[in-house]
Amino acid sequence: MKAESVELNDLEMYYETEGAGEPLLLLHGGTGCHQDWVYAGREQFVREYTVIAPDARGHGRTSNPQTTITHRQCAVDALTLLDHLGIGKCRAIGLSMGGNILLHMAMLQPERIQAMVVVSATMYFPEQARAVMRQVPLADKQPMHEWKECARVTRAATSKSQNCGTGRATCRQLRRYEFHSTVAVKNHRVHTDCLWRSRSALSGRNGIAMHRAIPRSSLWVVPNGSHGPVFGDAAPQFARTALEFFRTAH
Description:
Elements: E1 2-8, E2 11-19, E3 23-27, H1 42-45, E4 50-54, H2 71-84, E5 90-95, H3 97-108, E6 113-119, H4 127-134, H5 144-154, H6 160-174, E7 191-197, H7 206-213, E8 217-222, H8 235-248
Parallel strand pairs: 3-4, 3-5, 5-6, 6-7, 7-8
Antiparallel strand pairs: 1-2, 2-4
Helix pairs in contact: 2-3, 5-6
């Protein structure tokens, strides 16, 4: 495994690469980091691909000198990282926020994404999601124990104190996040696998709508799955399903 940081755009981006074969980009969810993929099939992915797992801006070990985060900007960051690595095309998997970032990448430069798996992503945030996010207090109003819990859940590779700092920064930025954004997908040209939990306050029922809107897409619904239905005991099946999709998507 190789770990590096690179200065690109206006930040210092941390990423790890591991494995051999064609490139596979893994994009984590909001408040997470590259390390989350250890719990979501990364070991299986590296057997067939060269995995590239970056930390999004304001997450993990990647900086963010701005006061906001948008999916589109994170997509530009990821595309710039691919440029830095000399990768013209890749397959990709995105979870939640990472899935939204991936949708933007495929709209900005569809020729770069050979096939993609989006997990619990959304074309737009429904009102119930916006209501949830409006209830997130500013960082300086949160008790310290809640930030420690945030650090535990993200499973980040850094120390708890560093994770808590990342959590504070992320939640502060969420107050101005692009929850109103809509991604136009009807003219999508990328083979897409939409993995969806049956219920999600963050994304509603957009999985079915996304599947219907994207040509050459497939849909895998996880009954009673969590917002991140790819972790823990579900990881082996998720990895097998994603790998099989990539083998058949041309």
